[in-house]
Amino acid sequence: MEREALERRADGLAMHDGLKLENDDKVVPDSVAYTGTNDGESSDSGEDEECRMILQSDRATSNTDSEEESASQSIFALADETCFGIDEHVRMTCVDWILEVLPDTSDQPTHLRKDLSEHLRNSPETRWHAAQLFIRYFHHLGAVCSCTASPVSASGRQTLTEEALLAHDGSEAIVWDCAIACVALSVKFHRDVFPPFYMIPAREWGALAPHTISYDDLEIAQRDILDTLSHSIGCVTPGQYLHDFWLALPSLRALLAFDKGWEAAQEEAWAILLEAFMQPDVLRFPTSLLTACALIDGCVDVLIGHYKTKLHASSSFGRRRPSSGADGPIRKDRNVDLRKRATRAVQNVKMDAQELLGYTEVDFRYCRFWLRSAP
Asked: Gene3D superfamilies, from UniProt (predicted)?
């Protein structure tokens, strides 16, 4: 947590125990809006209603200076909207590529290309880290370019290199160079430094790129990212938090004490965390809070599947088609009931994680609602 706080303050981002935000002229962004569904797998209506009340409370008190009223708000709802140095469509396209890209192994691939493909398939943490580096880098660019008086930001960041300013001002190809460089840096961080592995050569990154990139361009992009982030690329990633939650929370181990329960919960949590990068304000939340909320929602989904399996196994006639159809009211009511049951079951885990990390109830509610508002 201390390392994460230092990293976020260096990036000019809010942290629950440090940054004091002025409330004047700050409102909850309209982009974090409720987009509930009508199907049986939608979130518990009571929980969604409470989330909406929290958002309304944030809006109602956003223009006051009262400490008592501010205590009921999440500081992450009041944080400034993230400014990037690139077009939002380009950002989303590059992030989507980072989260999905795999090398072509269809035509007699090299041993190293097979290794790279296997690593990217099996390491969501590597992809998460690459996407985190990418948006942190362009968050720094956005902060610099929004400062009209000087290329040095108000928080005292160092002047960025010429390549960084070019990335903001001009070519989309340079942005793609940075996306490739982020994947390369993340793979080096999570794979290449561990024996018996060997470093992936530059030609493999050139083959991975969606456009033509030279060795010099790749080196320039990597160097520029390192310089911009002051060589602080060891981002705090969700993998360590997930490991620590499992060791520190007996309530979590008891909740998932069934076959492959923990493995399935981690898989669901990673899916939620990776999808969160498609939203423009993902940097609003610390990794610890995002991981805890994604794990809780992942546990809910896993428990629903577990309850359904037990329900079908307990029937002496096996599975059957409901008389009202698969999308009928009987099936919908059953799904809603199972979700409510799973939501109640994770409450102890949620409270333990909240106490462990030091976040407020409102912080957890707001972050979980934000995660579910993803398009």
From this structure: Cyclin-like
Measured at the CA of 248, the angle between CA 194 and CA 127, to 5 degrees, comes to 40
pLDDT above 60 for 63: no
Q: Is 246 left (phi over 0), alpha (psi -120 to 50) or beta?
A: alpha
Whole-number Å distance between alpha carbons of 44 and 371: 14
Instruction: Examine the domain organization and report whether 249 and 325 are in the same domain.
Output: yes
pLDDT digits (tens, 9 = 90+) for 165-177: 554 444 688 899 9
CA distance 265 to 272: 11
pLDDT tens string 114-163: 888 999 999 999 999 999 999 999 988 876 555 433 344 334 444 455 55
DSSP 3-state assignment of 151? coil
132, 75 contact by CB (below 8 A): no
86 HSE (CA, 13 A, CB side):
28
What is the reported pTM?
A: 0.76
Residues 244 and 353 in one domain: yes
DSSP letters spanning 65-105: --HHHHTTS-HHHHSPPP--SS-HHHHHHHHHHHHH-----
| Measured distance CA(222)–CA(216) in Å, rounded | 10
Whether residues 71 and 105 fall in one domain: no
